[in-house]
Design a protein that fits this description.
The complex is a heterodimer of chains A (197) and B (816). Chain A has 197 residues and is α+β, with helices and mostly antiparallel strands. Chain A contains six helices and nine strands, in the order H-H-H-E-E-E-H-E-E-H-E-E-E-H-E. In chain A, strands 1-2-3 form a three-stranded antiparallel β-sheet, with no helix packed on it. In chain A, helix 1 packs antiparallel against helix 3. Chain B is α/β, with parallel strands linked by helices and 816 residues long. Chain B is 22% helix and 14% strand. Chain B is built from 21 helices and 29 strands. In chain B, helix 4 runs antiparallel to helix 7, helix 4 packs parallel to helix 10 and helix 14 packs across helix 16. The chains are: A alpha+beta (197), B alpha/beta (816). Chains A and B meet through strand 1, strand 2, helix 4, strand 4 and helix 5 of A and helix 2, helix 11, helix 14, strand 10 and strand 11 of B. Strand 4 of chain A pairs antiparallel with strand 12 of chain B.
Chain lengths: 197, 816
């Protein structure tokens, strides 16, 4: 039988009433204490195994998510702790990993596609469709205009040098591979990541 | 890392130099603590600053930033001169006995073959062995020949006496010798030393040679392939290892294959220089499989469009004339040669040196796309932030997009950690607002380009319209689909080599390992070193069996370690030439009479008997490791001390060649370097335990713990400049000026360099004008736009500045 902390406190309170504390006249103290204890907040949370987003030690973390109980609410991260099963970090986290919940919830997380027009002083919200259509068009224009099929010696080189791509070093292997595949196929040579810098 | 995080516990000596694991990798550092507590290990820290790693060390030695090669060459001189090398290991497993070509020389700071007009070693032909008429390298097993690699090395390092080390590095002679003595206790196969380094070694114009120096020391001591040994790069980002493996790098393709140059006009040309034939009798030379890996990769990328008849779509790959690395890209932007830029989770305005140049470059772009979970300085480069970042939005015509991505716990997939262990992570929640995963965004971009090129045509549409995209949902490939594609499939039924009438793998089955890859188009596999990560037995990256049967910290069933689930590279070298462990203490992989056995996957053919004399370093054509690098490095087959580009002193070894002669300096940067008459103080950059790069300044708790930029300086310098703790200080370099608060500490002490006291200051990298921290001047306002001669990693760790007391910034630094 699973015993919640509240149930445990109630059982303890019953014991307390029959004990010397009860004899001293503190009847009800245990119940009061039990009523004041919040339920263990991870009790209804979902545990998910994850890896710390920061450095390449790759500490195992357990992230806990839950909804606020309201109708149609989406689960949110509510707690992060080290994964003691992971042999690399054995449950420990550093000041960065231990505070990583704040990264997920940072007020500086981007929410929507934004667009800054030339010469203006602000970002404006746009739709994904607008942003992606415009980016694809700009990229194709630049590629079609500047693609180098052959170099001066007439050798086939098939390269596109006027657009560059900096790849993220915190993307997954799967995202990284797809990025390589999609970007190299355009002929971009200026493809780099954080590894060198 | 050649070894693993857990393996550090097996070390008897730990050297932290070029890094600060206690603060930058705290949970990896726990294995140093473990080694100290349970293995009696001694910790040596060599650093300009008395770091928190130093605070728990057994031996701390100060060093001037940018002089590591002088220090390490001095160590080599000590080991060679005092017979403190592991003789049998060195003789059997390195190229110590190989005879170097006549004509190779080193004089007045230059190796043979230097072309002053090209500022490079245009002719590296003498940086090689003598070969016999069979194409085999000549050796002298008696080590008597004067041009044996080890004798040339002895002569090369003879100049690095303890006195010279003290003069260049500022390390007191007695401290230096104590470090040598402690390292030398591991030259025997009974004890081992691990080397832990990070950007403190890479971010120099001699970065790659710093690491090579350490690798040479580890070879002399016999510490490569040994538990508790190795050369271990403690890497930065959570998946920087994986992204490097997948070659998001200008001149590479996945799995450390090389993109063709424009001189390799055909696939046959390309393969000609990649034959990697063995150059010693009986050797294996593993890279002879190159063609199998390359063809399988092309099949993953281009599927049916890659055929034998079109040389496996060789012309679909761009051919390069020069490397388009980060510094080159910034130079091109600043020179108006680039129109478009994508920044996927890379904050280039903060990450590249010489911020003024980066800022000017971004302003010349026509468009820029930011793909990031956070607000970044780069996205806002056009915005005016007063003296912290001065810009005129009206004048900047760059069109900018910000695309929000999911991050931590909001998507699934695998990360490869610093020690090559691939671990899966699972999704817990949706990302904020309308954020999308990087996979979705890239898939969307590709799909739109493909549709446009299919419909309208355009410049060479072939590789775009023929890229394989066989995902169940083309707009949203699943990570498991991608990991399977990375692993590779049998594309046709593959016969069993032992009995060709039987089928080993049916068409469509996942490959069990890279050994079955073929060069006839019958297998795919995007990144050969990852083959084995997702087999018919399932997703190995998801494995969570933490058991460790040997107790050596191998954990063979936790995730998957590339290559071939091997946890310790070169582990054949843990046994002597006859296949016996060097010692019971360091027993790891041994020959049992019929095969190699142990707790890890042997880094060797599993049934190759020791009497076949195949060397343990099978990735080299000679089967041995290289004390003499041949032509592999652009700045010399031996490491040599050169001053940082902001040179603090004339090089005492060769004053006419003070800095690295093979470094690339762009014409636009010719006047970007400072001199000690104007900038008499040495500066280095560093990281704080409380922050990760430029991200955590957006996280409340971290911003509270470390709220603003500061400059750390010693008491002597502060007193001389009339600066008190907390005063505002101006720090200037040849590139620019920043203001920051002074943190006066005992962690920096002046050191005696070339007979004079030298002050060093430290500057954290993390602060900028976006975030929950106080607005600060970005550090890269000060740093020099030049990189390492081999790989162009910027010189962030050693540059010249001046400091003076100043007034607070005019625009009061309020929280953004």
């Amino acid at each position: 039988m699973a015993v919640t902390r509240r149930q445990f406190m109630k059982v303890s309170a019953a014991g307390l009433a029959a004990s010397s504390v009860g004899a001293l006249g503190f009847i009800g103290a245990g119940e009061g204490l039990a009523a004041g204890v919040r339920p263990f907040r991870l009790e209804k949370a979902t545990e998910t195994r994850n890896t710390c987003p920061y450095c390449a030690v790759a500490c195992g973390v357990l992230v806990y998510s839950a909804t606020d109980g309201s109708k149609d609410a989406k689960p949110k991260l509510i707690h992060v702790e080290g994964d003691s099963d992971n042999p690399i970090n054995r449950g420990t986290l550093c000041p960065r990993g231990a505070a990583s919940l704040g990264f997920a919830h940072s007020p500086n997380r981007l929410q929507y596609p934004m667009h800054r027009k030339p010469g203006t002083n602000k970002f404006e919200r746009v739709t994904w469709d607008f942003a992606m259509e415009r980016i694809a068009k700009l990229a194709k224009e630049d590629r079609d205009k500047n693609f180098v099929t052959k170099n001066r010696d007439g050798v086939t080189v098939n390269r596109w040098l006027t657009t560059g791509f900096f790849a993220g070093s915190s993307c997954s292997n799967e995202a990284g591979y797809l990025t390589y595949k999609a970007i190299r196929s355009t002929g971009i040579l200026a493809l780099e990541d954080q590894a060198r810098i | 890392m050649t070894n693993s995080w857990n393996d550090i516990k097996n070390a008897d000596v730990v050297l932290i130099m070029g890094g600060n694991a206690a603060e930058a990798h705290p949970c990896g550092f726990k294995w140093v603590t473990e080694a100290k507590a349970n293995n009696g290990a001694k910790l040596i820290v060599v650093d300009p600053r008395f770091t928190r790693s130093a605070a728990v060390s057994d031996l701390y030695a100060p060093i001037r930033p940018g002089t590591d090669i002088a220090f390490l060459s001095g160590v080599m001189r000590y080991l060679l001169g005092n017979g403190k090398i592991h003789q049998e290991y060195v003789k059997a497993f390195t190229n110590a006995s190989y005879i170097v070509r006549e004509g190779f020389k080193f004089e007045d700071g230059l190796f043979a073959g230097y072309d002053a007009s090209k500022k490079s070693y245009a002719d590296r032909s003498t940086w090689d062995y003598e070969f016999d008429d069979q194409g085999m390298a000549k050796v002298d097993d008696t080590l008597q020949h004067p041009r044996c690699a080890i004798n040339l090395l002895k002569a090369h390092v003879a100049r690095y006496t303890p006195e010279m080390v003290e003069r260049i590095c500022g390390t007191p002679k007695d401290k230096f010798l104590k470090v040598c003595e402690l390292m030398a206790t591991t030259a025997n196969g009974e004890r081992s030393m691990t080397s832990l380094y990070a950007l403190g070694w890479t971010q120099h114009t001699t970065g790659a040679q710093n690491i090579r120096s350490m690798a040479m020391i580890q070879l002399l001591l016999g510490n490569m392939g040994i538990p508790g040994g190795g050369v271990n790069a403690l890497r930065g980002h959570s998946n920087v290892q994986g992204i490097t493996d997948f070659a998001l790098l200008s001149t590479s393709t996945p799995g450390y294959l090389v993109l063709p140059t424009e001189k390799e006009t055909t696939f046959a040309d390309y393969m000609k220089s990649r034959a990697f034939k063995p150059i010693r009798p009986g050797q294996t030379s593993f890279w002879q499989n190159y063609r199998k890996f390359f063809v399988s990769q092309q099949k993953s990328l281009f599927g049916a469009a890659a055929t034998k008849d079109n040389d496996w779509a060789y012309d679909y790959l761009p051919k390069f004339d020069t490397a388009y690395d980060v510094l080159k890209m910034v130079d091109m932007m600043a020179g108006g040669q680039m129109n478009g830029l994508f920044c996927q989770g890379l904050n280039i305005l903060m990450a590249a040196p010489n911020k003024a140049k980066v800022q000017a470059g971004l302003a010349k772009l026509k468009w820029m796309v930011i793909i990031d979970p956070l607000e970044t300085e780069t996205a806002h480069f056009w915005e005016n932030h007063g003296e912290f970042h001065n810009a005129d939005p009206k004048a900047i015509q760059t069109e900018v997009f910000q695309l929000p991505t999911t991050a931590y716990a909001e998507d699934e997939g695998s990360f490869t950690n610093s020690s090559r262990v691939i671990q899966w992570h699972w999704k817990a929640v949706d990302g904020p607002g309308e954020s999308r995963s990087d996979i979705q965004i890239i898939a969307d971009l590709h799909s739109r380009l493909r549709a446009l090129y299919t419909k309208e045509g355009g410049a060479f549409p072939d590789p775009i319209v023929n890229t394989t995209w066989a995902y169940a949902k083309p707009a949203h490939p699943e990570p498991v689909e991608l990991l399977k594609e990375i692993n590779g499939y049998a594309l046709e039924d593959l016969p069993n080599p032992a009995d060709p009438t039987k089928v080993m793998l049916k068409a469509g089955q996942l490959l069990p390992g890279f050994a079955v890859m073929r060069d006839d188009g019958k297998t795919s596999g995007a990144c050969w070193i990852y083959t084995g990560v997702y087999t018919e037995a399932g997703n190995m990256a998801m494995r969570r069996d933490a058991s460790d049967p040997t107790g050596l910290g191998i954990h063979p069933n936790w995730g998957y370690s590339w290559p071939a689930n091997r946890r310790l590279l070169y582990n054949r070298a843990s046994a002597d030439p006859a296949g016996k462990a060097w010692s019971e203490r360091k027993k790891y992989i041994t020959w049992n009479g019929s095969r190699w056995v142990g707790g890890d996957v042997p880094d060797y053919a599993p049934t190759m008997a020791p009497d076949k004399s195949v060397g343990p370093f099978i990735m080299n054509q000679e089967g041995t490791a290289r004390l003499f690098a041949r032509g592999a490095m652009p700045d010399g087959p031996f490491p040599e001390h050169y001053e940082p580009m902001d040179a603090y002193i004339a090089n005492p070894l060769h004053p006419k060649v003070t800095t690295n002669p093979a470094v690339r300096v762009f014409a636009a940067d010719a006047k970007s370097f400072g001199t000690p008459d104007k900038f008499p103080i040495v500066a280095t950059s560093y990281r704080l335990a409380e922050h990760f790069h430029y991200w955590t300044k957006n996280v409340h708790d971290n911003a509270v713990l470390q709220p603003e930029m500061f400059v750390e300086m010693g008491e002597r310098l502060a007193k001389a400049k009339g600066i008190q703790n907390g005063d505002w200080v101006e720090v200037s370099s040849q590139r620019g000026m920043i203001k920051a608060k002074a943190s006066v500490s005992k962690r920096f002490r002046p050191i005696m360099v070339d007979g004079k006291p030298c002050d060093v200051i430290g500057l954290p990298i993390h602060f900028g004008f976006i975030g929950l921290t106080r607005k600060s001047y970005p550090l890269n306002t000060l740093t020099p736009p030049v990189g390492d001669a081999s790989v162009n990693t910027p010189e962030y760790k050693a540059f010249l500045v001046d400091v003076k007391k100043t007034t607070p910034p005019a625009s009061s630094p309020a929280v953004a």
